[in-house]
């Protein structure tokens, strides 16, 4: 319990620190000015979201293999947290894009596959609400989660291959593509902070789900006597 | 009996059942027809633009039709719990899955082939000389749709709201097929038709992965 | 109908639990069934009879505990003939097509003779080319029974087989079950109340909320003890005895 409070406190502090760094420590970017600072949140959230989904994918695989309910708990926690981060990405992106590129959205590989990723995980959560029996729900959503995760790189590849005639404004290239040293520090710090936040949120959600499972078990024992 | 022979027997049953009533095929074909016609109303298929939009609309129509056609797949087996009987009778339950995939691919393919002349007429294109390539494209696309669709049909058959759920789950998942198939078809419709082998490769990859 | 060439099958349920989410369909169930026994399963709705049968048929696996078979061949689970609530046949095929199809999947030898023979035996010889959709409930039950018997199973599972049958069909079913019992098959049938079919059993077991609460292994008239027809008779039931 104390461990979780500590983790939570650390996460909050780190994010606040990262925000401070993003606004005050990092040097101002030449062309875009203050607006560019969204970049630190946007990309770090994107990475945290992808990490969350990847861990969730492992949870899904493990569930299908071992059928232990803790993997189902992990799967749903990662899916929800990943979805939150992805939503932030999808909102912060256009906010940045409009002043920067003049358009809110375009259908290049990265944006499209992020959007489809978002849709698929929303469907994952929706599917869970539509199946009542816990074991079946766990298995079917794990299977769908696996499909969903595999599909996204394929979508990415598909668009990348064919739709290049659209203007592909900066794929928010990896930060290594020409980030000034001052920015680099802030950036990786933001990534670190977001990942700690992600870890905290997943842990919290997981323990919530675990508690639910335990309550169910207690109720059954009570019914039995 | 072994996996292959079980699959063959099951596939035979699926085909025989369908050809007796033909209700699934006929409703699917009519549905695709309606969708394509409606698309033609919305986007006037003058020759230039139609070559860009047409295939996309066609494959979109196929995708919609598939998401409806795949639903009865497992729901049919729930009616009299024949699924339990099948599971008791076959040595490997995977055969049931394989047979369903085969049947769905076949029915989709038939729908697509029947729609091809209609599409060609409405959008004023000629596929002369491209028939084998079109066939290959349709086959790979249908297989991809079928594989993912049958799996998702099995999943959604056990959930509530299954009629809405299947298209909801299926369409985003099949987005890459839509893109790939469309692009290949477009290139086959071009004044100098060429075969987008990378598109074919992509479709094959999708099929294999899933 | 040929008598089973293989030895009869015995079953042993060992501390079996079956959980569906929060609900325990079977709870710590222990039951041993000797080869050749004809066991009647009694119990209210929801007592676990159907679940027990589904586990016995290997359609479902227990959440905990084990089910083992004796007399089964080649370390495989035996193929049981299962007649459930649902008919498990295709309405849009004819009786003969249904049976041929399942016979093909099961790898039955001399398929055509077997199918024709079975259809004759269940009394559907003249309706074999009609779609099952056109059959009455009793006739569908007969097709279901024929389907269950295709591979000459030595383990037969019946889930309330007389439900919805008219007296004539019930009479036919009773006679048929007697024949199967006498040929040495192990039969497990869940029944709803005292009936002629119940009297065929050599043993009765009563389930309540997923466990065995009473059992009798004698050959005497078991129906009244196990199938009380009045609610107060449940109360004066002997103390539950684990078997």
Description:
- The complex is a heterotrimer of chains A (225), B (210) and C (243).
- With 225 residues, chain A is mainly alpha-helical.
- Chain A has one domain (39-167, 176-218).
- Chain A has helices spanning 2-25, 38-66, 69-101, 109-129, 134-162, 181-224.
- Mean pLDDT of chain A is 80; it is low at 165-177.
- Chain B has one domain (3-209).
- In chain B, α3 packs antiparallel against α9 (175-189).
- The longest helix of chain B is centred in the middle third of the chain and has 30 residues, at 94-123.
- Chain C folds into two domains: 1-80 and 154-243, Rossmann fold (3-Layer(aba) Sandwich); 91-152.
- In chain C, the strands form two sheets. Chain C has a six-stranded mixed sheet. A three-stranded antiparallel sheet of chain C has the order 2-1-4, covered by helices on one side.
- In chain C, β6 (155-159), α5 (167-182) and β7 form a beta-alpha-beta unit.
- Chain C is globular, with a radius of gyration of 18 Å.
- Residues 218-224 and 229-243 of chain C have low confidence and may be disordered.
- The interface between A and B is medium-sized, with 26 and 25 residues.
Gyration radius over CA of chain A: 20 Å
Average pLDDT over all residues of chain B: 81
Helix content of chain A: over 70%
Q: How does the helix and strand content of chain B classify structurally?
A: mainly alpha
Q: In total, how many beta strands of chain A?
A: 0
The overall number of domains of chain B is: 1
Largest Cβ-defined interface: A-B, 26 and 25 residues
Low-confidence stretches of chain A: 165-177
How big a fraction of the residues of chain A is strand? under 5%
Report, as a whole number of angstroms, the end-to-end distance of chain B: 26 Å
Shape of chain A: flat
* Series of H and E elements of chain B: HHHHHHHHHH
Rough outline of chain B:
globular
The total tally of domains of chain A equals 1
Topology of chain A as a string of helices (H) and strands (E): HHHHHH
Notable features of this structure?
heterotrimer, B: about 210 residues, mainly alpha, 10 helices, C: about 240 residues, alpha/beta, Rossmann fold, six-stranded mixed sheet, three-stranded antiparallel sheet, 9 strands, about 30% helix, globular, disordered C terminus
């Amino acid at each position: 319990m104390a461990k979780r409070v500590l983790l939570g406190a650390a996460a909050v502090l780190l994010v606040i620190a990262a925000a401070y760094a993003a606004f005050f420590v990092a040097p101002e970017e030449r062309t875009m000015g203050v607006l560019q600072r969204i970049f630190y949140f946007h990309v770090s959230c994107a990475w945290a979201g992808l990490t969350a989904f990847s861990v969730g994918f492992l949870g899904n695989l493990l569930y299908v293999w071992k059928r232990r309910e803790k993997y189902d708990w992990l799967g749903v926690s990662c899916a929800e947290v990943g979805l939150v981060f992805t939503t932030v990405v999808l909102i912060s992106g256009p906010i940045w894009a409009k002043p920067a590129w003049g358009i809110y959205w375009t259908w290049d590989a990265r944006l499209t596959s992020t959007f489809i990723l978002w849709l698929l995980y929303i469907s994952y959560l929706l599917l869970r609400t539509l199946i009542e029996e816990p074991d079946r729900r766990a298995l079917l959503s794990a299977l769908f989660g696996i499909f969903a995760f595999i599909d996204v790189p394929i979508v990415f590849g598909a668009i990348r291959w064919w739709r290049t005639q659209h203007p592909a404004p900066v794929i928010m290239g990896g930060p290594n593509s020409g980030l000034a040293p001052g920015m680099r520090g802030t950036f990786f710090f933001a990534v670190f902070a977001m990942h700690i936040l992600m870890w905290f949120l997943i842990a919290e959600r997981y323990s919530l789900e675990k508690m639910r499972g335990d309550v169910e078990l207690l109720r059954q024992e009570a019914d039995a006597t | 009996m072994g996996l292959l022979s079980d699959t063959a027997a099951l596939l035979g049953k699926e085909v025989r059942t369908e050809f007796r009533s033909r209700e699934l095929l006929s409703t699917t074909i009519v549905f695709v027809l309606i969708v394509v016609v409606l698309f033609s109303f919305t986007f006037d298929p003058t020759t230039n633009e139609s070559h860009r939009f047409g295939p996309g609309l066609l494959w979109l129509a196929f995708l919609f039709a598939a998401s409806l056609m795949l639903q009865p797949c497992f729901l049919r087996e729930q009616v009299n719990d024949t699924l339990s009987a099948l599971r008791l009778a076959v040595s490997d339950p995977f055969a049931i899955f394989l047979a369903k995939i085969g049947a769905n691919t076949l029915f989709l393919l038939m729908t697509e082939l029947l729609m091809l002349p209609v599409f060609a007429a409405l959008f004023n294109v000629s596929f002369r000389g491209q028939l084998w390539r079109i066939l290959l494209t349709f086959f790979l696309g249908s297989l991809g749709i079928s594989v993912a669709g049958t799996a998702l049909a099995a999943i959604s058959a056990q959930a509530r709201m299954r009629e809405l759920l299947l298209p909801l789950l299926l369409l985003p998942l099949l987005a890459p097929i839509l893109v790939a198939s469309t692009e290949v078809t477009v290139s086959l419709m071009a004044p100098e038709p060429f075969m987008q082998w990378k598109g074919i490769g992509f479709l094959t990859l999708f099929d294999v992965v899933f | 109908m040929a008598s089973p060439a293989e030895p009869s099958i015995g079953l042993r349920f060992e501390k079996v639990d079956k959980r569906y989410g929060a609900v325990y369909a079977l709870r710590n169930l222990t039951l041993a069934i000797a080869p050749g026994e004809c066991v009647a399963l009694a119990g209210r709705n929801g007592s676990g009879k159907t679940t027990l049968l589904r586990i016995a048929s290997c359609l479902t696996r227990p959440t905990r505990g084990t089910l083992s078979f004796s007399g089964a061949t080649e370390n495989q689970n035996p193929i049981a003939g299962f007649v459930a609530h649902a008919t498990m046949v295709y309405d849009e095929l004819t009786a003969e097509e249904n049976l041929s199809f399942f016979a093909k999947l099961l790898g039955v030898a001399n398929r055509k003779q077997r199918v024709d023979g079975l259809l004759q035996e269940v009394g559907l010889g003249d309706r074999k080319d009609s779609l099952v959709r056109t059959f009455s409930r009793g006739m569908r039950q007969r097709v279901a029974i024929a389907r269950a018997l295709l591979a000459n199973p030595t383990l037969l599972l019946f889930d309330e087989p007389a439900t919805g049958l008219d007296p004539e069909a019930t009479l036919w079913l009773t006679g048929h079950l007697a024949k199967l019992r006498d040929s040495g098959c192990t039969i497990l049938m869940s029944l709803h109340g005292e009936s002629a079919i119940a009297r065929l059993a050599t043993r009765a077991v009563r389930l309540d909320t997923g466990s065995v609460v009473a059992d009798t292994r004698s050959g005497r008239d078991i129906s009244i003890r196990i199938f009380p027809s009045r609610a107060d008779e449940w109360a004066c039931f002997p103390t539950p005895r684990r078997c």
